[in-house]
Design goal:
There is one protein chain. By secondary structure, this protein is an alpha+beta fold. It has one domain. Helices cover about 30% and strands about 25% of the residues. The protein has 3 helices and 5 strands; from the N terminus they run E-H-H-E-E-E-H-E. A 5-stranded antiparallel sheet has the order 1-5-4-3-2. It is globular and about 40 Å long.
Length: about 110
């Protein structure tokens, strides 16, 4: 499966520097995953969903469903550079711009 994650200006404004769970990418990823799961009829997923983002790994899990976690990978390998650069710049306090990335997960 794949999802498109849109990191918005609002995500950047609300994001927390050096936070694996509250950075702009994590906020955008949570929103995209919740929308993807809810389109299959499940509700209240956001309360049980956990997302972690760092330069080497993107993953999520649903505490209500199982202990299993799911890793996400950019469909285009070049997007890893975009993700890593965004994280490094955001965490350093540099200006960053909104972007989109397509991710696949198992």
């Amino acid at each position: 499966m794949s999802i498109v994650v849109e990191v918005t200006k609002d995500d950047i404004r609300k994001g927390v520097r050096k936070s694996n769970c509250s950075c702009p990418i994590a906020l955008a990823l949570t929103r995209a995953i919740v929308a993807d799961i809810e389109k299959d009829g499940r509700e209240d997923v956001e309360d049980s969903l956990a997302v972690e983002v760092d330069c080497d790994e993107l993953r999520f899990w649903d505490a209500n469903e199982s202990e299993d976690d799911f890793s996400l990978f950019p469909v285009d390998e070049e997007d890893w550079y975009k993700i890593k650069n965004f994280i490094e710049n955001f965490d350093s306090g540099n200006d960053v711009e909104p972007f989109n990335v397509e991710l696949k997960y198992n």
